[in-house]
Automatic annotation (TrEMBL):
This is Heme ABC transporter ATP-binding protein. The keyword Translocase applies. It comes from Aliivibrio fischeri. It comes from the Bacteria. Signal peptide: none annotated.
Length: 259
C-alpha cells in the first residue's frame, strides 16, 4: 500500500509543565525521503517535541501520520511504520544481543527464519554482528545504542514508507560509528523513509541533514536546508557563541568553526 509522502503533519503543538512552557505553537510537516534534524541548546524542547510526535507523551495536539489522525491508526499497524530510538534505552533482562534485536520483530508476525535474516542484516548494518551472542548488560553504552538501533530498524523493515525517530543516536558513539549511524539515516531517507533526528553536533547536522529545524525556549527559530538554517548569526543568537561558517572544501555543506 502506497501512503502519502507527507509522513507527519503536526499543527499548533504546545506543551507545558506547570507554568513552564516547553513547546509553544509549533507547526511541522515532515516528508518521506528526508532527514530532518532538530537542533537547539539544552532545554530547547527537542526531545519533548520528538516524544509528542511519536505519542510517547500523550497530548491533545493535532498529529497525523501519512495524513491519517493518530487515533485512527491501529496500534499494531502503526508500529510497523513508526520506529523510535529513545535517548535512553533500558532493559532489565539478561538477554543476549540477538534476542534484543529480535524484539523489533514483535509487530511483524514473521517466521523465525525470516526474522533471523532481517535481524542479521540490521546487525551487519549497525556493526554489531560480532556481538550477537554477548549478554546485553555486559555491553558498553555505545554498543547498547547500536543494538537498539538495529532493533528499531528491524521493527520498520517491512515498509519503505515509514517514520524513524532517533533521539541523540550518536551521543555514546565514537567518531566512526557516529558517521555510520547517520549514513544509515541518510540511506533510510533515500529509500523512502521520513527520518527525524535530534542532534547536538552542528557539523554532523550540516553534513547529513536535508532539513534543519532549530528550537530555542520551545519556539521555532530556524527551518530550512543546512545552508539556510545553520548560519553564524543563528548560532550566536541561539547558542550565544561566535562561529565561522564556511563551505566544505569538496562537498556542498557548511562547516562550523569556533571563532
Amino acid at each position: 500500500m502506497s501512503l502519502s509522502s507527507l509522513a507527519i503533519s503536526a499543527s499548533n503543538i504546545s506543551y507545558r509543565i506547570g507554568s513552564k512552557i516547553i513547546l509553544d505553537d509549533i507547526n511541522l510537516d515532515l516528508r518521506c525521503g528526508e532527514v530532518t534534524t532538530l537542533l537547539g541548546p539544552n532545554g530547547a524542547g527537542k526531545s519533548t517535541l520528538l516524544k509528542l510526535l511519536c505519542d510517547e507523551i500523550s497530548s491533545f495536539n493535532d498529529i497525523r501520520y501519512f495524513e491519517k489522525a493518530k487515533d485512527q491508526w491501529d496500534a499494531s499497524e502503526l508500529a510497523k511504520r513508526l520506529g523510535v530510538l529513545p535517548q535512553h534505552s533500558t532493559l532489565s533482562f539478561a538477554f543476549d544481543v540477538n534476542e534484543v534485536v529480535e524484539l523489533g520483530g514483535l509487530p511483524l508476525a514473521l517466521s523465525n527464519q525470516a526474522l533471523r535474516e532481517i535481524t542479521s542484516s540490521m546487525m551487519l548494518k549497525t556493526g554489531i554482528s560480532h556481538l550477537a551472542e554477548r549478554s546485553y548488560p555486559s555491553l558498553s553504552g555505545g554498543e547498547k545504542q547500536r543494538v537498539h538501533l538495529a532493533r528499531v530498524l528491524t521493527q520498520v523493515s517491512q515498509h519503505q514508507q515509514k517514520i524513524v525517530m532517533l533521539d541523540e543516536p550518536t551521543s555514546a558513539l565514537d567518531l566512526s560509528h557516529q558517521h555510520n549511524t547517520l549514513r544509515l539515516a541518510k540511506d533510510l531517507a533515500n529509500e523512502g523513509a521520513a527520518v527525524i533526528v535530534v542532534l547536538h553536533d552542528l557539523n554532523l547536522a550540516a553534513q547529513y541533514s536535508d532539513r534543519v529545524i532549530v528550537l530555542q525556549d520551545g519556539k521555532l527559530q530556524a527551518d530550512g536546508a543546512p545552508w539556510e538554517a545553520i548560519t553564524a548569526e543563528m548560532i550566536e543568537a541561539v547558542y550565544g557563541h561566535k562561529t565561522l561558517v564556511q563551505a566544505h572544501p569538496t562537498l556542498n555543506f557548511p562547516v562550523i568553526f569556533a571563532a
